Amino acid sequence: GFTALTAVARLDYRDLRRLTYPLLGVTVLLLVAVVAGAGHAANGAARWIRLGPIRIQPAEIAKITRVVWLSHSLAKKNEKIRTFSVGFLPHLLVAGFLMLLCLKQPDFGSAVVLLLLTFTLLFVAGARTGYILGTLIAALPVAAYLVLGTEYRRRRWEAFLDPARFRSTISYQLVESMMSFGSGGMTGVGLGDSRQKLFFLPEAHTDFISAILGEELGFVGVAGLLLAYAFLIWRGVRIALHAADDHGTYLAFGVTTLLTLQALINLGVAMGALPTKGLTLPFISYGGSSLIIDLAAIGILLSV
Asked: What is the CA radius of gyration of the chain?
């Protein structure tokens, strides 16, 4: 991850424009390979491709590739960004195609991040707000169908609405996570002394690691973590506002938005404020692909 950060930071971000379409092509091929059956399955989803001793998750690569492509395209079409046929529709179609490949894995969380990332950058670039709001409204019935029309997603939604009712079944993970936060109190039980991570809380090292932080470091520790993310967001936005050109602005805003969305969604899920999604906590969760991509994203910020 630090090797990727260093390499990208030393690269002139303008050179990324030449790599935009090769990166997009490789990402699509990897996603298609996963959907076609080459993916490694875990926890009911085939999201990984095994390359010898390592596994890569193409959906993680798709997020940063999406930022690179959108930044290039929006900068190129800057004068026509307020038109529907040139400034809005092509970006939405590409996002829809990548989201469809994610949903086929299935990976609903990554699909949501890709959509929100697209709308955020379109808004920053100056696309018509009416187009964005209209698309969001039109997408609501589709989202409802995807959630309620699929058994495991519907069960997650039910668990989110009433965790106590399904305490010993589908809400087990969520309830154990909230117990972790509650056990931490103000200052926590001490670093390394969590009890919930001793096989009580599933995925304690990845999707729900924030609950372990809450138990070990308490409210003070979680507040400190949120302040660290807030500092990162502030620096990212500042870099975007002071970028030398529109391309740099969109890259910096895109990277900052990506890290922000993943952090907020992960924390929201662990605290019971959002339905369960399989998204990692940036720089904290165990995970090869996500950590490398997140650090490479910081390299882009440093380059800008």
From this structure: 20
